[in-house]
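> @MW can you paste both from yesterday?
MW: sure, first one:
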Amino acid sequence: SNNNEKNKDSSNAYDLPRANVYRIVKNVLPEGILLVNDAKIAFAKAAVVFIMYLTATYVITLVVFTHCLQQ
């Protein structure tokens, strides 16, 4: 039981609040369109991947920029 709780916590460590993600998605969808739960989860996971991509790109850019300044 304790092991399952650890796995659950680690798998959700980067999850965003689904209500917030859904609110953003809902604002850009045409009126009257409803999303099933699987779609909401997919949007939330895609948002996490996008944020991780932005973060990684920022770090790489910062390292390259810092390296260029030192030369």
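MW: second:
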Amino acid sequence: ATNSPVRFSTLLRQLEGSNKQSLSIALKELEQHGLLEKKTVKQKPLHIEYSLTPKGQSHIPVFQQLENALR
């Protein structure tokens, strides 16, 4: 989901072993470092979406290399 916004609940389901608190902290830190943008969508149901900033997108190749190295 590097090209489109992702909801918090979707991330929580997709990240094995994560919980609401640890995911919330990690997302907040990524936002503070300018890698993520948080958007509150005020349509029903009210929800929050996260998307990569241009700075975050520039790190995709690094994360892909790390992922490949762990396989």
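> thanks! The first strand starts at residue 6 and ends at 7.
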